[in-house]
Amino acid sequence: MIETILISARTIDQGATLEEKTSQAYFDAAAYCELNEGNLEALGVSVDQNVKVATAHGVVVVPAKIDKRLPDDIVFIPMGPWANAIVDPDTCGCGMPGFKGVPATVEATADPVLNMKDLMATYKE
Amino acid sequence: MPVIKDVVCTFCGCLCDDLEVTVEDNKITKVGKACKLGRAKTMGMFLHERIEKPMIRKNGKDSELEECSYDEAITKAAEILVAAKRPISYGWCSTSCEAIEKAVVLAEETGSLFDSTANVCHGPSALATQEKGAPSCSLGTAKNYADLIIFWGCNPVHAHPRHQTRYSTMAKGAFTPNGKKDKKMIVVDPRNTDTAKKADLLLQLNPGTDYVLVEALRAIVNGHADVLPDEIAGIPKATVMEAAEMCKAAKFTVIYFGMGVTQTRGRYKSGDNVSSLVSDLSQTNKVVMIPMRGHYNVTGFGQVAAWEAGFPMALDFSRGVAYYNPGETGTNDVLMRREVDAFITGAADPGAHFPQESIKYLYKIPAIQVDGYANPTTEFSDVVIPAAIAGVECEGTAYRMDSQPIRMKKLIETTFKSDEEILTEIIAKVRELKGEGGA
Amino acid sequence: MAEMIIKNGVVYDPKNSVDGEKNEICIKDGKIVDNVGAGAKVLDAEGCLVMPGGVDGHTHCAGKINTARIMSPHDMRYSPIPGLSGPEPRTKLLRPQVGYNTPNTHAIGYRYSKLGYTTIAEAAITPMMARHMHEEFESIPILDKLALVLMGSNWQVMQYIQDGDSEMLKSYMAWALLASRGYGVKIVNPGGGSNWTWGKNVTGIDDKVIDFDVTPADILIGLAEANEALNLPHSIHVHCNNLGVPGNLPTTLDTMKLLERVKASQDRQVMHLTHMQFHSYTGTSWMDFASGSDQIADYINKHDHLTFDMGQMIFGPAMTMTADGPTEYRNARMFDAKWSNYDQELEDAGGIVPLAYTPQHFAHATMWSIGLELALLVKDPWKVMFTTDNPNGGAFVNYPEGQVLLMSDKKRQEVIAGFPDMTMDRISLPNIDRELDWGEMTVMTRSMPAKMLGLEEKGHLGAGADADVAIYDVKPDKVDVSVEHEAVKKALGFAKYTIKGGEIVVRDGDITALPKGKVYWVNAYENGIVQTEKDRLITDLEERFKKYYSMQFSNYMVEDAYVPRPVEVRPEVA
Amino acid sequence: MQTVTLTPKRSPVISIEAEMITPDVFAGKSDAEIGAIPAWEGNEEITLADVFDVAVDGSADAAGTKIIIDGNVPRVKRIGEAMTAGEIVVKGDVDMRCGALMSGGSITVEGNADSWVGREMTGGEILVKGNATYYAGGGYRGETCGMRGGKLTIEGDVLDYLGEHMCGGEILVKGNARLLPGVLNWSGTITIEGDTTLPGGEMKSGTIFVKGKVLEMLPSYKDEGTEEVDGVTYRKYTGDLSRNGEGVLYVSV
Fold first, then answer.
1. 8 Å CB contact between C180 and B128
2. pLDDT higher than threshold 50 for residue C62
3. D140 to C75: CB separation less than 8 angstroms, yes or no
4. D218 vs B229: CB contact, 8 Å cut-off?
5. Which of A60, C336, D5, D136 has the most neighbouring CB atoms within 10 Å?
6. Considering just the CA atoms, what is the radius of gyration of chain C in Å?
7. Total count of domains within chain B
8. At the topology level of CATH, where does A2-121 sit?
9. C557: which DSSP letter?
10. What is the mean pLDDT of residues C311-318?
11. In this complex, do A87 and B45 lie within 8 Å of one another by their Cβ atoms?
């Protein structure tokens, strides 16, 4: 397990599939995380293997990818349902939840990645 | 082959208005000049599934959505809103200003909270404007004059792909005839992004330290470099000094800022302080700032809501006149507190873009969705009303990220009702239910 | 439409030489007529003051004000004038209202109507931003509107003046009015807006503009001559260089003298000078600054080629918004205030800064005095328009305050008594005892602005005029305004009746109906410019759009959809 | 002396807006009259009697009126708004904007206060025995000044933007203050007995004491050495030099 900071943000593929969020293309564009090579090695995880990213606000399982230029200990997940499963919902008195800069742990897992509908279904209380 | 020229792209806040769209047999078959995002938006609708029919869940969130008529769905929507004590209307950013005007009326007449997608993107930029103002310029001015471009917490290569060629680093302007050669570029980002690859200087700050970096830059500009420590926000002092020198050397600087500024620690206080940096620097040379708006007409929402009701977002009409206080009246504020009892959204997808806690609550209250496509919001919506796609299937006004309004074109015919028509019908039904006919 | 007759009112209609007479006013189909039938609805005005509907010839009411709104959530709760400011919930008829200096569009329409005003002129819009302004126009109920289009720092204008190409200049001006659906030509800090894009300014009418071989004087003369050659209904409308700068008096006098050489194409001024208060300062700094109103008034009393408006200051919070970008930046730095700026590609600049004026500060007290001095020292009311440069000098809901100040020396002296001593040797107001009468007040608030703008159907009550009428609960032959100024002020703030286009829109100070107003615009292009010149202009513009603009040429012009109730004015071709 | 006891009858989910709960409004009124005072629950106009059992003992002017809210009201906003005199005691939590714009009298909150407690107060005293959240003693959107006078004491912790835009008065936090206390302040004194982060951002003038740790310090303050104030030795910083500020930040050594 490593301790990281979560950042979520737009990517072009996530943007290009915004109007088809039920599709595989959107799933491929939004359901993953990126770490640098060193962080991934430290986890003993290879590309496309699943990791569990956890914050104080939730847990999500996504496949891992490499962004060589990422600094150490930052985990990036494209904006969308998978990132939002674990972002900080507190609006800090000004309306805006914490989509970036959330302390997160990352560890290898054998758990599967939920598709969009199954992920959403977990929110039924 | 009929080609429609100078079509307005309705994806991002760049609102490029030079697309060339080929329409054959009421289908869009080719989109010239667009980026990947614009092409997906403009012709994507023929590649994936629409919400074809209005739908209602008749037996709670666990039941399936069942097809119904527009009338039925609109009546149901009106009933939900009229019955609510604390309804909220959210979104209305990927649609026309004409539709947004109707959404304001609906919110007023149902005593709703009323908020835009700025709640999860540039809301803090509006708060910053309220603190310090908005020292800005039009994108054409930026193109013609700017010899230093700063991308702060934004990544146009991914989010605004044509920005650099049309308006910023690569654009040729009156005083920058050689484009890139006449311009310098600084990127401020904790990630070494694809945009940063071509930067002259990358300020790779620690996440959440934007405010600290602005403080240091202002201290330098105001003659207090001596007090700064050797490292600021994870960046060597010398590098920060170099950035300040580049700003002082430039004749015209534009700071484009994105959600890296608005969504991190300190929220609007960073953008607010950038605004003061702009003012400080402008004592010797011209500096302006422009927010990189995401939804193509989220700027328009702010404009319409401000002129119609006084505030750009997070309005609370519960007492018949708008009260405004993000942190209290923003969508995620009230969802987190679980204090609304009905939800209507259009031309936005809170299901995909809200934090988990907010969505958990949306599964508990009656929810209405007005949209062209099924998405995570559909999963918890009790009433789903399909809408025409503004800027493709119906015309109207949209505001670019620099607050420049442009008229969107209608490219093809459709049988779907527009957002404006749907809202107009819901308003009529609300009036009928409340016994407030006329007007 | 039903006919109406207003009886028993005391009517002021200076254009038609009616000065407080008990005339009947007949209305049919939204127009004033000579007679109506026996079945006409009778409105008994029982000794009340009757005037044409008010015309505000210079206000900032659409476009830039929206950025000011976004900057000012706190303004939305201010309510110094109950009934004309602050939050008011929706009613079955009315939309919610908020704000004081920057009210929402609906409040603007309601509150001007309550004041008895029926026509307003947005004073500064760039052609490129005109679409936005028209959207707000459409959202402002009741009132008729028109817009003045910024041309004083426009690249095309400066290029054609530099080239000495008066035909292209004329063609462009006519085209720009068409493109923006605008009414007249506005010049703000000529040349200064262009320089401001580099963070610089001009210091007088003979400075060179940085990127063009022209001076502010060249721009003023070029636009004025072209304006007259196009026979536009309004003259050029000028905000001089050096606004708000101590010692700006010579610049203002230079500008006035400069225009002596231009001949008017019709019976009106060749230049309207706006918010003159901000341009009438002697001295070299804020320490030795003083009123220069006597010199301005002296010049204007001796010359007939210009008109002006006051730009009267009202004490309290104000919101400054102007195309004068460098002035706003200077204000923001001076007061550590928030600052918005906008540089509009190729067209102009602009800024927005909130300020507050207080009678305890000698500079503000002096500025307040200058506005009144100007209006009182200039003898001919047909040269003076009443304004506060809303909301730069103060919010328009304070017009009754400003108006009674002109009518009551007593009230003026009461205010002056509270000024710091440092004010007294800077102003002449304490020695001016002129009190305007109702006829003069009608001129300054109705007849003069209508004539100045060339709006023939406004500002009077003769047959053919629009049936825009204001009736106040003031008995002109009984009231002594000098003494009873507070009661008169209240009456002017809440009209007994406001009639717009023949419809009663205000009754006893409350809104009763919400008709939509017209938008006046001037088409001097279609018939005014010959085809070969049109072709030459369009070829040049297409090239400029490709190179410099961020918008396609074909998407630039305001579409008909934004002006659903236009009144197209076509000047006679010379 | 008049004592008005409001006992909550229910636990609303939608916040009640009850800006009429002040000694100024209650003074001299009977329980029936107070019960009939309007409040808002979302878009529905209700009365105080819909939310509270009202018991009145005695009759007095505002200064002689004491309001006791005998229970937890975490969803009642604007208690004590703009009050000028008298006393309010809440035996539990309060919702947002408690004591906003108050100019006199006192409010005691025995539990926690939600955001904007003491917003724009100009006088009087507020004591929160538990925690407060955001913008304690802060300002309203767009306004230059927040708190202008009076005293705000919070015995527990606060979150971000404590005393934002402060133009006068006194704030004491006995616990920790999270991010940017005293941001953009012009005047007044803030004392934080616990820890805090980035105090005094863009402070123009005014004084901040931090008796705990500064977890992260702004780069734009000048270290002026140590100084003793009221028997405590502090490291003294001046700034915020990002805006040529002349504020003073004392951090306990």
1. no
2. yes
3. no
4. no
5. D136
6. 22
7. 3
8. Barwin-like endoglucanases (2.40.40)
9. S
10. 98
11. no
Answer whether B touches D (≥3 Cβ pairs < 8 Å): yes
Does residue B216 share a domain with residue B321? no
Taking CB atoms and an 8 Å limit, are A100 and B372 in contact across chains?
A: no
Residues 357 through 386 of chain B touching chain D, CB cutoff 8 Å: none
Residue C16 has pLDDT above 70, yes or no: yes
How wide is the angle at C-alpha D71 spanned by C-alphas D66 and D73, nearest 5°? 95
Give the model's pLDDT for residue B439: 44
Interface confidence, given as ipTM, is 0.97
Q: How confident is the model at residue C399 (pLDDT cuts 50, 70, 90)?
A: very high
Domain end among B291, B311, B337: B291
Q: d(Cα B426, Cα C35) in Å, to the nearest integer?
A: 47
In this prediction, residues C212-216 reach a mean pLDDT of 98
pLDDT tens digits for B55-106? 999 999 999 999 999 999 999 999 999 999 999 999 999 999 999 999 999 9
- Verify that B243 and B355 share a domain, yes or no: no
With an 8 Å Cβ cutoff, is B110 touching chain D? yes
Contacts of A92 in chain D (CB under 8 A): 134, 159-160
User: Measured between CB atoms, which of B159, B332, B353 is closest to A91?
Assistant: B332
**Is a pLDDT exceeding 50 seen at residue C472?**
yes
Would you mind telling me the total number of residues written for chain A in this entry?
125
User: What is the percent of chain D where pLDDT is above 70?
Assistant: 100
Which residues of D, range 174-233, sit inside 8 Å of C by Cβ?
204
Phi-psi group of B255: left, alpha or beta (phi > 0 → left; psi -120 to 50 → alpha; rest → beta): beta
- Give the model's confidence band at B437: pLDDT under 50 very low, under 70 low, under 90 confident, else very high: low
Give the gap in angstroms from C-alpha C73 to the nearest C-alpha of chain D. 6
Residue type, C300: I
Nearest CB to B279; choose among C87, C95, C339: C339
| CATH number for the domain that contains residue B395 | 3.40.50.740
Pairs of residues, one from chain B and one from chain C, whose beta carbons lie less than 8 Å apart: 186
Q: CA angle B48-B53-B59, nearest 5°? A: 115
Q: Are residues B38 and B69 in the same domain?
A: no
How many Cβ pairs closer than 8 A exist between chain A and B?
190
Distance CA B378, CA B363 (A): 11
**Range of B129's domain?**
123-291
Q: Is B163 helix (H, G, I), strand (E, B) or coil?
A: helix
Q: How far is CA B260 from CA B189, B271, B355, in A?
A: 7, 10, 17
Q: Is residue B228 part of a domain?
A: yes
Q: How many Å lie between the alpha carbon of B117 and the closest alpha carbon of chain C?
A: 16
Check residue C328 and report its DSSP letter: H
Instruction: Give the integer Cα–Cα distance in Å for C469 and C461.
Output: 8
Going from the C-alpha of C399 to that of each of A67, B285, C280, the distances in angstroms are: 64, 40, 21
Q: Is residue B198 part of a domain?
A: yes
Alpha carbon of C340: minimum distance to chain D alpha carbons (Å): 13
Q: What is the mean pLDDT of chain C?
A: 97
Question: For position A125, what pLDDT does the model report?
Answer: 86
Domains parsed from chain C with CATH numbers: 55-457 (3.20.20)
Q: Which chains touch B (3 or more CB pairs under 8 A)?
A: A, C, D
Q: Give the confidence band of B438 by pLDDT, cuts at 50, 70, 90.
A: low
Q: What is the pLDDT of residues B15-25, one digit of tens each?
A: 999 999 999 99
- Domain membership of residue B439 (yes or no) is no
Are C96 and B101 a contacting pair at CB < 8 A?
A: no
Q: Looking at the structure, tell me whether residues B275 and B229 fall in a common domain.
A: yes
Average pLDDT taken over every residue of chain A: 97
Question: Taking CB atoms and an 8 Å cutoff, what residues of chain D touch B111?
Answer: 42-43
* Neighbours, chain A (3 or more CB pairs < 8 A): B, D
Query: pLDDT class for C1, splitting at 50, 70, 90?
Result: low
Angstrom distance (rounded) from CA B118 to CA B92: 10
What CATH number is associated with residue B214?
3.40.228.10
Same domain, B138 and B286: yes
Question: Mind telling me how many Å the CA of B46 is from chain A's nearest CA?
Answer: 11
**Taking CB atoms and an 8 Å limit, are B229 and D40 in contact across chains?**
no
Q: B274 and B325 share a domain?
A: no
Quote the minimal CA–CA distance from A94 to chain D in Å: 9
Residues B129 and B115 in one domain: no
Query: Is D227 at the interface with chain B, CB within 8 A?
Result: no
Residue B149: the pLDDT is 98
Report chain B residues whose CB lies below 8 A from the CB of C111.
none
Domain boundary among B248, B272, B291: B291
